[in-house]
From TrEMBL:
SUPFAM superfamilies: beta-N-acetylhexosaminidase-like domain. This is Beta-hexosaminidase bacterial type N-terminal domain-containing protein. It holds the Pfam family Glyco_hydro_20b. Residues 39-122 form the Beta-hexosaminidase bacterial type N-terminal domain. It comes from the Bacteria. One of its GO terms (biological process) is carbohydrate metabolic process. InterPro entries: Hex-like_dom2, HEX_bac_N. GO terms for molecular function: hydrolase activity, acting on glycosyl bonds. It comes from Pedobacter puniceum.
Length: 896
């Protein structure tokens, strides 16, 4: 009898509590997935859980019931315990039900048991919360151009790794992301076959089958987790075999819409929609076709939308898949106005801070564009894009991110997020860290993904509670207490102000042609327009304030300053760096886990500090140098010298900090990169490569000061004009000799009033201004030796002028080395803006110079080996150029 009682007692102690998870008999894949995750984790504890697909509670067990009750709003849910001990789940839709199950699972994992007395209600603020992955590479594939990357195991082995996809999708679900964007120039030639264009397929049959399988796997697994997959593509870009078959380029920004390309593209989209009806499309109209204009509207309404509609017709479906229209380099409001009568399920997207993270106080024209798109009535998506100013150091300022999401709501009036990786976008899935095994972005940058998702779900979270939340999270990450976690958070948030402030107050561009962490040349501070400064960044993506050149001019004229100043930011970033180091040093003793990663984070804080001090000292030097521009007093250069020397010392420290910690600074390692140095074929990708440039710059500056002091009057150096090269033209051309009083256009009488001597005597082409405006400019020629074509662009954005090459909107804008102005303000034509000279270099053979619609000057052809001085001729009346201080050309009229 006693034995029986003891046995029954032991059985009672070991018996697991039964849990019945009740879902509908016809439950969706999302509901089944969520319920399965809950059951799995309950069964790992002291429970015996099972799914009941019958909507019927079990009176002998505790029930978790997905009820028929509806909550208010998409993806909304409620979790409520009742008097019987059951837990009732309600939701607004299938995703809400999934989130209810996942939230309950998280509660179970956190508490080690099934919680009691639950009263949880939640729903997201943002309609779409998505992340981006690029099927793109740091450099070009052989024989291909930018964005041209077919889906193959050789190029993207990670794309076929199912376990890696599961890990990524699980991260997305844990953070409640509901959209995944895949970026590629032209994915259709890797994913669909066309009977009309069988030669357009860019992969072999075995790879094509793998692509079908992995794409099906990815979309199904994503759907289980409430994630909508969206395939992005550029326009107009065509597959290489198709281009070769038809004697076309894969991409040509200046060509008109060609019927065979339109037909191929429409059929490709139709086949894709028919094959993957639940996959959305993200359309970039600009970049690979001529920018704003009627072509954008025609391509979207007469090719893309009809392609989607053809696919639906073939399916026998009337359910429109979503199309996201990216505003980049197009008149998105005009396109939407034309498209909405034809297609209803449209979204819009625009970059938050360009290709960077600069401010949570956006304003100006860019804010106006965002608001106009938000007010159309469809969902407008904020694209946190590229983050070129954050590469490659770790970034985790929860405060900056929360304020940015609030700005998306309250300034831009938007309600959706599209998030790029924090760094190394072009090198997915790896980071730039130099480690025994390559680190994964998913692991290293967990806080980036978690913070943006947290505030996309709810941006109004109270600050003190958020400090406690992140302190606890960071403490747990490093096996430390909450106090240590708070120190790490402080380090993240202090360092998190440095790169945004530096770029928005000193930078050349918000695009990824500038790698901020590699530094800047002094000439880029004192003469930013020579480097194509993107003024929209200062006008819209920064608080009101002043550029360095404006500040220096006001100082000389003793005028008051406005808003955020260069001197203010230089002081602030140094202080942020000091505080970041102090905070991370306080955390060191408390770290008990993930020591290697903490050491890398600590090193990043020292990198931020060195970078901040480098910029601060160089800015101070630049302001003294700009004072010299007005004063002609060499003593001002003496004042600049110690700061320039100090900046080099800080950069030397940055080189030591990065040499054994990073493989590169920038993940885009192609000719598109321009600042601080032009990067071609993976050159100037590391600080140790750039250091000699800064050291030479300092050496030249010292030499210039010595030269000024050694002579009372600087000698004028005779200017040698460029010599004409021999070329043969396909069509007959009219010439004129470049000189004062020369008539520049065949159909206008306006003449050259002034020009820099280097251009005198060139054989320029006398083109029709009217024809240029109507059709653009195409000059086909043959040359026995490599040549450089000098092209003059008017220094004003206007429909009558051909746009200056600009990498912010045109990825091909440096294919011939043309993106940077060689001679600024080089020619003055009466009643026109000043003209900047750019250089296009072509190899020997038959070549074509193509310019977008609008007036421009084809000034002549010179030998490609001719050394071109880069300077500002100053003919616009804005003062003399002082770039010669760093080795460009000799000065005149200097006061000693």
């Amino acid at each position: 009898m006693m034995f029986s009682l003891l046995l029954n007692s032991a059985i009672a102690k070991t018996a697991k509590e039964k849990i019945n998870v009740v879902i509908p008999a016809q439950a969706s894949s999302r509901v089944i997935f969520g319920a399965t995750q809950l059951v799995k984790h309950l069964n790992q504890l002291d429970y015996q859980a099972q799914i009941a697909k019958n909507n019927k509670p079990n009176a002998r067990a505790k029930n978790i019931i997905l009820t028929n009750q509806k909550t208010n709003g998409k993806e909304s849910y409620a979790i409520v315990s009742d008097a019987k001990g059951n837990i009732n789940l309600a939701s607004g839709d299938e995703s809400g039900a999934l989130y209810a199950f996942i939230t309950l699972t998280e509660q179970v994992k956190a508490q080690g048991k099934l919680p009691e007395n639950l009263q949880i209600k939640d729903k997201p603020e943002m309609v779409l919360r998505g992340t981006a992955i690029g099927l793109q590479k740091p450099d070009y594939l052989p024989g291909r151009d930018v964005y041209e990357y077919p889906y193959t195991p050789e190029t993207f082995p990670w794309f076929y790794d199912k376990q890696q996809w599961i890990a990524y999708l699980d991260m997305m679900l844990a953070n409640r992301y509901n959209s995944l964007y895949l970026w590629n120039g032209h994915p259709f030639s890797s994913l669909v076959k066309l009977k009309e264009y069988p030669y357009a397929l860019e992969v072999d049959e075995a790879t094509f089958k793998k692509n079908e399988e992995i794409f099906k796997f990815l979309t199904e697994e994503a759907d289980k987790r409430g994630i909508w997959v969206i395939q992005m593509f550029y326009n107009i870009l065509i597959p290489k075999p198709f281009a070769e078959k038809h004697g076309l380029k894969t991409q040509d920004r200046n060509r008109p819409i060609i019927p065979v390309i339109a037909d191929y593209t429409q059929k490709s989209i139709a086949a894709f929609v028919q094959k993957y009806p639940n996959v959305g499309l993200l359309v970039t109209l600009g970049e690979a076709m001529e920018g704003v204009g009627q072509d954008d509207i025609n391509w979207f309404t007469k090719t893309i939308i009809p392609g989607v509609q053809d696919g639906l017709k073939a399916l026998g479906s009337k359910t429109e898949p979503p199309i996201v229209l990216r505003a980049h380099d197009s008149d998105a409001p005009a396109v939407m106005k034309a498209a909405l009568p034809l297609y209803k399920n449209l979204y819009t997207m625009a970059k938050y801070n360009g290709e960077a993270l600069t401010t949570y106080t956006p304003r100006g024209k860019w804010a106006d564009l965002h608001r106009s798109l938000s007010r159309i009535g469809t969902v407008h998506v904020q694209n946190v894009h590229i983050l070129a100013n954050l590469e490659p150091f770790r970034y985790g300022s929860a405060d900056f991110i929360q304020k940015s999401v609030q700005a998306m709501h309250y300034v831009y009036e938007a309600n959706a997020l599209h998030l790029y990786p924090q760094a190394s976008y072009w090198d997915w899935p790896y980071t730039a860290d130099k480690a025994p095994n390559r680190l994964m972005q998913l692991d290293r940058d967990w806080i980036w993904y978690k913070a943006w998702a947290r505030y996309a779900w709810d941006s109004k979270r109270e600050r003190s509670a958020e400090i406690a939340y992140w302190s606890k999270e960071l403490g747990a990450k490093y096996g430390a207490n909450q106090e240590t976690g708070k120190h790490i958070l402080d380090a993240y948030e202090e360092s998190g102000e440095i790169s945004p402030k530096l770029l928005r107050r000193f930078g050349i561009t918000d695009g990824n042609r500038q790698t901020l962490t590699l530094g800047m040349l002094t000439t880029q501070f004192i003469n930013p327009f020579r480097y194509g400064v993107f003024t929209l960044m200062y006008e819209s993506e920064a608080p009101e304030g002043e550029m360095i050149i404006d500040y220096a001019e006001k100082e000389w004229k003793k005028q008051g300053h406005i808003g955020e100043t260069p001197v203010q930011v230089a002081k602030e970033v140094v202080e942020h760096g000091r505080k970041a180091i102090a905070a991370i040093e306080k955390a060191k003793a408390g770290v008990k886990a993930n020591q290697d990663e903490f050491d890398r984070l600590l090193n990043d804080m020292y990198c931020y500090d060195a970078m901040a001090n480098f910029y601060a000292d160089k800015v101070t030097a630049a302001l003294w140098i700009l004072k010299f521009k007005y004063s002609n007093d060499v003593k001002d250069l003496d004042q600049a010298l110690p700061f320039l020397e100090s900046s080099v010392q800080h950069y030397q420290k940055l080189v030591k900090l990065t040499e054994n910690h990073y493989l590169y600074a920038n993940s885009m390692q192609t000719k598109q990169r321009k600042i601080p140095m032009r990067g071609v074929d993976k050159t100037f990708i590391h600080w140790k490569e750039v250091l000699p440039v800064f050291e030479t710059e300092l050496k030249n500056f010292k030499h210039s000061i010595d030269s000024l002091k050694s002579t009372k009057t600087a000698s004028n150096i005779a200017v040698k004009a460029y010599e004409n090269a021999v070329v043969k033209f396909q069509d007959k051309q009219l010439y004129y000799t470049v000189k004062e009083q020369a008539k520049a256009f065949a159909d206008e009488d306006l003449k050259i009033k002034a020009l820099t001597p280097e251009l005198i005597g060139l054989n320029a082409l006398q083109l029709s201004a009217e024809a240029q405006i109507k059709n653009g400019t195409q000059i086909t020629f043959t040359n026995a030796k490599p040549v450089t074509v000098l092209v003059g662009f008017f220094n004003k954005k206007d429909a009558q002028f051909s746009p200056t090459p600009e990498l912010e909107t045109d990825a091909s804008a440096n294919n011939y080395g043309q993106a940077e102005s060689k001679i600024s303000n080089a020619i003055i034509i009466e009643n026109y803006p000043a003209i900047n000279v750019h250089a296009y270099t072509f190899p020997a053979g038959k070549n074509t110079l193509s310019l977008a619609k609008g007036k421009a000057l084809v000034l002549g052809f010179i030998d490609a080996n001719q050394k071109i001085k880069i300077f500002d001729a100053g003919l616009n009346g804005n003062g003399r150029d002082i770039d010669w201080l760093f080795g460009y050309y000799a000065p005149t009229d200097v006061k000693l």
